[in-house]
Specification:
single chain; mainly alpha; 2 helices
C-alpha cells in the first residue's frame, strides 16, 4: 500500500539530498586540504544543518536510516511505505 505524500515530504527530502551532496564535496576537499580552517568550519556547520533537517524529516515522516541510526515511533513504522529511497 502506497501512502499519499504531501509536497513537504519531497521538499524536505530534496533539501537533505542537496546538503548531503555539499558535505561529500567538502569532505573530498578536506581530504587534500586538511588544514583549511574555514572549510572545516563550513563542514561542521553544514553537518549540523544536515542533522537538523534529518531530525525534522523523521519527526514528520518517519525514519530515514535503519539499524539503529534512526528511531522509530510507536507502533514500529519501518514497514510504512514509501521509504525515502523509493521516491
Amino acid at each position: 500500500m502506497t501512502n499519499t505524500l504531501p509536497p513537504e515530504f519531497y521538499t524536505l527530502l530534496e533539501e537533505i539530498q542537496a546538503i548531503d551532496f555539499v558535505l561529500v564535496e567538502l569532505n573530498l576537499y578536506l581530504d587534500t586540504h586538511p588544514n583549511d580552517f574555514e572549510t572545516i568550519k563550513q563542514f561542521n556547520e553544514t553537518a549540523q544543518k544536515s542533522m537538523e533537517l534529518k531530525n525534522a524529516f523523521e519527526q514528520q515522516f518517519g525514519p530515514l536510516m535503519n539499524f539503529g541510526r534512526s528511531f522509530s515511533n510507536y507502533p514500529w513504522n519501518w514497514n510504512d511505505t514509501p521509504w525515502p529511497w523509493q521516491v
